[in-house]
Amino acid sequence: MSQLFHVQSLMEITQRPDIVFVRGHGSWLVDEAGKRYLDFVQGWAVNCLGHSPAPVAQAVADQASTLVNPSPAFYNVPSIELALRLTGASCFDQVFFANSGAEANEGAIKLARKYGQKYRNGAYRIITFNHGFHGRTLATMSASGKPGWDTLFAPQVDGFPKAELNDLDSVRALIDDQTVAVMLEPVQGEAGVIPASVEFMQGLRALTAERGLLLIVDEVQTGMGRTGTMFAYQHYGIEPDIMTLGKGIGGGVPLAALLAREEVCVFNHGDQGGTYNGNPLMTAAGVAVFDALASHGFLASVRERADQLRDGLLALSEKWDMEGERGLGLLRALKLKRDEGPAIVERARALAPEGLLLNAPRPNLLRFMPALNVSADEVVLMLDMLDDVVAGLRR
Ligand SMILES: *Cc1c(COP(=O)(O)O)cnc(C)c1O
Fold first, then answer.
1. What spacing in Å lies between the alpha carbon of 102 and ligand 1's midpoint?
2. Per-residue pLDDT tens for 309-353?
3. Which residues bind N(2)-acetyl-L-ornithine (predicted)?
């Protein structure tokens, strides 16, 4: 009997299709009826090495039988190894590990406020952006600029005035003596894959430095190779003060990180913590993921697949009278012009014998977040399947 008969025991928080997945490998998922799906969602850009990647499975299995959790009050080997790798690959000096992107961003907000108390006369406001997304805790929902979220669980956490992405004057206009930081996604993901421009990022770095403000990049979606460099800020020729990571950092397991330059690491004992933070089971997975991403040629192949995906999406856009595409690396969006997104997602999933999993963060937009080790053939297959779906829809 299908497990679908028992789903009423799960709290209903979103509409899910009538499919129960039982297995995954690389770019493919398999449901309980045995149907295969080519997955270009990958848990929302989480499975950077695809489903159940061997290095992560091995690292978790080995670590599970070695040491799972000595408690965050003690040091453990994998967390030290992963912190060393992350600081070695970035402009940051220290790491705090968390369990979700929202929790890492909460940590970034707390760290900035602490910095404000220590060095900036109690300044606490953090300028964030309309349509930005930083997570689903109360503070990170308040920091997000998703329409409707300002009243959803009112009252909001105070202190997150909203500017417009790629509009430096809109940031400048919000700075006052209570401002301590500016926080943004280098590519707004949930908003529909909208990259910050190089001029804007460089202008923002200059402006924040001049006014003594911290620059926080939320790289929960863009970090860990997603955009073709290890971290997206590296495309812009700038160095932020704080960065958060999530999603890809664990290759599918719950792991996130807060990184900062040494001068900004101002937590006192007891200010920050958490039962599972930096546990060896998850950080061992993180080490395996990092080593795969840092291996010779890996990021170059991400950039090749990204070019291939971009060219293929542009060709589809041309053929079907759409509005082109945008993105950075393997985080891309196809601009549909019409509100066909939800219908395309449904029809792609229903394709037989093999389905295709896509995401439409907005009705007129499709978002593509394949595994970073997706093959050239799989990109071709996805483009062919998508072409079929659009042809069927327009017929
Ligand atoms: C997904 C996401 C988050 C939230 O991460 P969770 O692990 O779901 O809490 C925060 N910021 C950005 C940019 C994200 O894409």
1. 6
2. 999 999 999 999 999 999 999 999 999 999 999 999 999 999 999
3. 136
Residue 196, SS3 per DSSP: coil
Burial class (CB in 10 A: 0-12, 13-18, 19+), 237: exposed
Spacing, Cα 146 to ligand 1 middle (Å): 13
Strand order in the sheet with 359-362: 325-328, 331-335, 365-368, 359-362
pLDDT band of 3, cuts 50, 70, 90: confident
User: Which is the closest atom of ligand 1 to the Cα of 247?
Assistant: 7
**Residue-range definition of the domain harbouring residue 366:** 3-53+297-394
Entry pTM: 0.97
Buried b (16+ CB within 10 A) or exposed e, 352-380: eeebbbbbbbbebbbbbbbbbbbeeebbe
For residue range 342-377, list pLDDT tens digits in order.
999 999 999 999 999 999 999 999 999 999 999 999
